[in-house]
């Protein structure tokens, strides 16, 4: 298969993906790891390693797509993903674009998305709730403010960098108590 659109379509509650690794072989690639429906609540994705170094064959390069998936945990994953070659704001590693998710936990991940200047590594629509914390993200994104869109989630100690050989910066900006 030259390009698998989605490796896993999750429609049931309580699914766990633990240490499910994917490494492209240079001639075939997957465009998406997981696509969910609104009935895929309590999904856990943890301890996975993914590598796709081939430019995505589609303008829609979304690795994990959550559609109304509540209480989802995405923890301790490593991902290097080469996105589509043009600017597209929905090129993302974790994306919620249609139906909001509540009580999300996106923690302890190391993500690097390259080749797309319009991508947001973590892209959540308005009203999604939860915690996005302790992630490190390398991106080709030109500005930190568009490197992540976290909607209504609390965001703690996440570091972003758009240059190799440099330490990341805290993003978004730290809160100030008034």
* Helix proportion range: under 10%
Helical/strand content category: mainly beta
Oligomer: single chain
Task: Describe the global form.
Answer: globular
Low-confidence stretches: none
Give helix and strand order, one letter per element, not per position: EEEEEEEEEEEEEEEEEEEEE
The averaged pLDDT comes out at 83
> How many alpha or pi helices?
0
* Strands, count: 21
Beta percentage is 35-45%
List keywords for this structure.
single chain, 178 residues, mainly beta, 21 strands, 0% helix, globular
Tell me what you see in this structure:
By secondary structure, this protein is mostly beta strands. 0% of the residues lie in helices and 39% in strands. The protein is built from no helices and 21 strands. The strands form 4 sheets. It has a 7-stranded mixed sheet, with no helix packed on it. Strands 2-6-9-12-15-18 form a 6-stranded parallel sheet, with no helix packed on it. A hairpin with a 7-residue loop joins strand 20 (159-161) and strand 21. The chain is globular, with a radius of gyration of 15 Å. The relative contact order is 0.14.
């Amino acid at each position: 298969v030259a390009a698998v659109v989605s490796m896993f379509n999750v429609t049931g509650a309580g699914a766990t993906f633990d240490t499910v690794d994917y490494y492209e072989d240079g001639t075939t690639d997957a465009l998406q790891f997981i696509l969910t429906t609104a009935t895929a609540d309590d999904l856990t994705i943890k301890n996975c390693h993914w590598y796709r170094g081939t430019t995505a064959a589609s303008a829609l390069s979304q690795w994990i797509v959550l559609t109304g998936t509540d209480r989802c945990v995405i923890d301790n994953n490593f991902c290097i993903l080469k996105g589509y070659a043009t600017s597209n704001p929905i090129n993302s590693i974790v994306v919620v674009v249609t139906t909001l998710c509540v009580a999300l936990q996106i923690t302890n991940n190391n993500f690097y998305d390259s080749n797309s200047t319009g991508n947001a590594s973590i892209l959540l629509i308005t009203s999604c709730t939860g915690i996005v914390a302790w992630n490190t993200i390398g991106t080709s994104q030109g500005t930190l403010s568009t490197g992540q869109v976290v909607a209504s989630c609390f965001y703690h100690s996440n570091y972003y960098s758009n240059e190799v050989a440099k330490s990341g910066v805290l993003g978004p900006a730290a809160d100030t108590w008034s």
